[in-house]
Amino acid sequence: MGLTTTKKMFEAAYNGGYAIGAFNVNNMEIIQGIMEAVNETNSPVILQVSAGARKYANPIYLKKLVEAAIECNEKSGKDIPVVLHLDHGPDFETCKDCIDGGFTSVMIDGSKYGFEENVELTKKVVEYAHQRGVVVEAELGKLAGVEDDVKVSESDAMYTNPDEAAEFVKRTGCDSLAIAIGTSHGAYKFKGEAKLRFDILQEISEKLPGFPIVLHGASSVPQEFVQMCNEYGGDIPGAKGVPEEMLRKAATMAVCKINIDSDIRLAMTANIRECFVQEPGVFDPRTYLGKARTAVKDMVKHKIVDVLGCAGKA
Q1: pLDDT (mean) for 281-310
Q2: Which residues are registered as beta bridge partners of 151?
Q3: Cα angle at 286 between 37 and 22, to 5 degrees?
Q4: Annotated catalytic, 87?
């Protein structure tokens, strides 16, 4: 099948009451772990590259790794739809570079600007992307937290206004919209009880019937990985994510794409730390990265089956 866009993927997800996992990728082992999981569950997938990943690994390396994963699928008889997506594109130039480089989906994040400037920037990206068969995700509202170059304090966070969301989509022509309903970037999402504004999500879905909504900052921060990290020398106390039952509910309410990044980092780091402590004589990267890759696969399979609901939907 090769690379595809999210058009049909989101239409099926919206009508089927499930969401597609959008997993951030930074290296070969992460891509391998994710692809093993989607192959075993027969699930569609979005592999997304952040600005930080572009700086770390080089977008050419990442695209070739994704192409290698697709080639492996084809040789094994698998037909998994894969989207290569730019996560949090900061400007038109970055989006253009990814579009020209073969990405099938890009996100332009103009949420740091005022409404009119966000509209203007998003519309510019949409016009360039649509002429080349690429879909565009935009963002309205501000999520708290830190992810690569995206840094928003709690005091600056802002819920998405449903009326503005409807106007924004109409004026920009974007294909999906990331909204702020209480999720946040990073591993420290809630100080007290977790709460998402499902009322805002419901109102937006009523104003934009059939339109795919995206949740950023939606990692669950599994406590077993937090405990493993801390047990084997880490220092990440109090990390807390979005409860999985809340994400499953959101997937039945117009949310078609759920971003997951911190959970991958935690799964990898916890298992590498455990290996270093329990097997101090190991210095072969294939040993500890192999364990990390398996942890990513198992975690992604769990998300697909129990949280996203997209198993068997490829």
Answers
A1: 97
A2: 146
A3: 30
A4: yes
Tokens of 221: 């921060």
Go through 143-156 and write b for each residue having 16 or more CB atoms within 10 A of its CB, e for each that does not: bbbebbebebeeee
Pairing of strands 150-152, 144-147: antiparallel
Q: Looking only at Cα atoms, what is the longest distance across the chain?
A: 60
**CA 190 from centre of chain:** 19
23-73 pLDDT, tens digit each: 999 999 999 999 999 999 999 999 999 999 999 999 899 999 999 999 998
- Spatial neighbors of 198 by CB under 8 A, at least 6 apart, are 181, 249, 250, 253
The two three-digit tokens of residue 240, written as one number:
């807390």
**Which residues, at least 6 apart from 61, have a Cβ–Cβ distance to it below 8 Å?**
none
State pTM to two decimals. Answer: 0.92
The angle subtended at Cα 145 by Cα 108 and Cα 17, nearest 5°, is: 65
Choice among 87, 109, 148, 175 that is catalytic? 87
Please provide the DSSP assignment of 160-216 as one string: PPHHHHHHHHHHH--SEEEE-SS-EESSB--SSS----HHHHHHHHHHSTT--EEE-
CA distance to 108, 217, 233, 234, per residue, from 264 (Å): 23, 13, 19, 16
Non-local (6+) Cβ contacts of 268 within 8 A are 29, 30, 292, 295, 296
Question: Could you tell me which CATH number the domain at 7-308 has?
Answer: 3.20.20.70
Write the DSSP symbol of residue 293: H
Domain ranges in the chain? Answer: 7-308
Alpha-carbon span 6 to 135, nearest angstrom: 7
